[in-house]
Every structure is written in C-alpha cells, then in structure tokens.
Amino acid sequence: MSVRTVLTLPHPVLMATAAPVGSIDEAARVLAQDLVDTMRASPACVGIAAPQIGVSRRAFVVDVTGHRKAVSCHGTFVLFDPVIVSAEAPQPAREGCMSVPDLTGDVARATRVTVTGMDVDGGQRTLSVDAFEARAVLHEIDHLDGLVFLDRVVGPHAVFARKTYR
To answer: Any idea which residues carry the catalytic annotation?
Structure first.
C-alpha cells in the first residue's frame, strides 16, 4: 500500500480503455488501497482512477466528504468494474484533473447517476449519487474508458488555465 505517482497527458495508459478486474483478489485490494492513499495524499483530490496511477484496470475511488458542492456523499468508496445504470439531468460545470494539471474546463455531465460495481470485498454495490458526487463518479469512469475531461469540454471556448492559489 502506497502513494503512487499520478500520470499526466500524453501518457498512453490514460488514453487506453482499461481492462476489467473480474474478481477481487489480493492484487485488487492492494490497488484499492493505493488508490485511496494516493487520493488522500493529493490536496483537493476527490477521486482517482487506476489508469491515472499506471494500472490499466477498471477501478476508481471517490470521496467528496466536506466538498462545498456535494449533496449526496457516500464517504470513501472504491468500485471495480463499474457500470452506469442510469444518468440524467446533464448540466455544465467546471472540472479539473490531476492528469491534466494546468487546465480546467466546462463539461456537461449528468447530475443524477446510478452506478453499480464490485466493492473491495467482492460484493455488488449500487450507489445513487447526485450533484458533485455524480460528476466525480462520471469523471473517474471516463478515465477507465481512456477519456479525460478535455475530451468532453463543451467547446474550445470552455478550456481555461488552472488558477494558482497561494
């Protein structure tokens, strides 16, 4: 279990579709812990996907606890082989990404999502998320499909230099 280096564009792993995990074994549990450790060590990070740490597998972690834009909040959760069951009410909002550290962009995403996948114990978990938590889940699933938020910006006018806070 450790904090892993976060890959940035144009690393090829970020642009490839991740392979299914299939079943939860010790390697999957180690991956889950590495995802959690890396997210927690990264200031303002609310989620990270396995491809971002160089592992081309369908797994991600999200935790929007305490975020001012969060409505639903399921705490820290890791999902393996996630599937979107339903998504509705898209709205544009600004996004950033650790794998695209110098830019942000306006992306239209569903504001209500139901997602299912396996948890770290191998059980099926279904979550209904909304608002910022829905955005975070969809952002991480995009990483599993080889996409970054720049692939979904509402247009070239909607990409911005990331603000630097001191």
So the answer is: 140
